[in-house]
Amino acid sequence: MKHLLTLLLIAISTSGIFAQEKLNFDKRYVQSEDQWVVFPADTLGSYPFGFIYIDSEAGLTFNYESSFTIDSNGKFIPEEKVPTRIMKYRLDPKQNVLVAFIPESKFSELQIKKTPDWLSIYKEGENSVEQLYKKGYRYNAWGECEKALEFLEKAKKTDIEYKGLRAELAYSYNCLERYSEAIEILKKAVKDAPLDAYTNKELIYAYAKSGNLTEAKNICRKMVRDCPDKTFNAEIAFNILQAYFMKKDIANFNDWLAESGSYLLNDKNLKGYVEAMKEELKK
Do 31 and 99 touch, CB atoms closer than 8 A? Predict the structure, then answer.
């Protein structure tokens, strides 16, 4: 009985180890910065692998290292690497491809270091306000607002006056539904640039989402009237209209649509949504 118990404990322990070494293909490109990753195996059971990093000019990049197979004992066996062959691929952050992180315990089998020697070239100046802002901007654009905020708040501690930083911080706060923080930081940004279209767009969004629709409409009217940049006119009007829709405030919904419809309904991307909301409120 004692021997049986020992064997069971060994089996449980061993299965736990193999479970930890299993490749889980559950990470998107934008979650994989500074990670050794592996793609699913090809028809021959060969797994392509490499390192994902951010090139300040090219964006998210995959540096192909080699491929490996897995033997019956779970050992990773790398294919012979061609020393002179360097293969880099720019990644599309929106592409729905999942990769797995390579367990650190397998680095020695693959003859790789946790941090590649060549990576230092791409890390130069990474803690400067400029690079922190660029990274935050990129991650916001990729929809990874929490990650973006890590870099933007570091930049904030260094130089809050860096051009565009307040608005980009506000974008992250709005994305994470931290509207009061977005409003607070944007009030100062708007004082510095009263007619900046992007800054006001984020401020209107924050006011609309926090329920202060009177203030949102006042700013929207000013932007439509005075701002030479008309890029966001339909979007800011839509955010206010949507807030009334969510509250099922039909009277104010119709009043705002009558006021802003001349440019809101001319937007091909938003017109369908507006018509759908109108029909829903009739039910």
Answer: no
> Which pLDDT score is estimated for 84?
63
- Alpha carbon dihedral 54, 58, 60, 64, in 10-degree steps, equals -90
Task: Please tell me whether residue 67 adopts helix, strand or coil conformation.
Answer: strand
Q: Containing H/E element for 225?
A: helix 213-226
Q: pLDDT of 87-108, one tens digit each? A: 999 999 989 899 999 999 999 9
Residue 142, classed as helix, strand or coil, is coil
Q: How far is CA 208 from the centre of its chain?
A: 23
Nearest to 74 by CA among 10, 118, 19: 19
Write the DSSP assignment of 160-207 as a string of letters. Answer: TTSTTHHHHHHHHHHHTT-HHHHHHHHHHHHHHSTT-HHHHHHHHHHH
Instruction: Give the residues of the chain that fall short of pLDDT 50.
Output: 1-20
Architecture of domain 129-231: Alpha Horseshoe (1.25)
pLDDT digit string (tens) for 208-263? 999 999 999 999 999 999 999 999 999 999 999 999 999 999 999 999 999 998 88
Q: Are 110 and 68 in contact (CB under 8 A)?
A: yes
Residues spanned by CATH 1.25.40.10 within the chain? 129-231
Per-residue confidence (pLDDT) for residue 127, from 0 to 100: 93
241: tokens are 């209209």
Which residues are CB-contacts of 259 (< 8 A; sequence separation ≥ 6)? none
Residue-level pLDDT at 21? 60
Interatomic CA distance for residues 55 and 208, integer angstroms: 36
58's tokens: 């090219």
